[in-house]
Amino acid sequence: MTTILIKYRQIVLFLAGLGTSLGGLYTLFPQWALENLNQLPFFASDTIFIQHWGLMVLMVGCSFFIAMFRSDWVKPVFCIALIEKLFFISLVLSNANQPFVDGFWSSMVMDTIICTYIAAYLWWCRTASDLSS
């Protein structure tokens, strides 16, 4: 199992980086992203929070790309991403009965898949002295 997880690590890092980096759209185009991706009304007073969230998610996505070339980044990036993504999943699930959550389900599914891989990677590689190998 460990061999499979390590064999596909580069592909997972790329796909996770690509999917996660799409959050940068909220920084560059906050109104468009909120209205089109989440089907939520845009309020100019919320722009700073939307853009901040978008940049934070973009940075996690970029970290996945860096980890593709810097194996010493894999473990820290996976740990940070796991915390960030599990928190997002918990927010969506805890607000599941609210209508504003409708636009977040696809992102939650993507984050759940990424978290599953990360958890499996860290679990199955836990006996190795260097999880990034």
TrEMBL record:
The chain crosses the membrane at residues 12-29, 49-69, 76-93, 105-124. Keywords: Membrane, Transmembrane, Transmembrane helix. This is DUF4345 domain-containing protein. It comes from Shewanella vesiculosa.
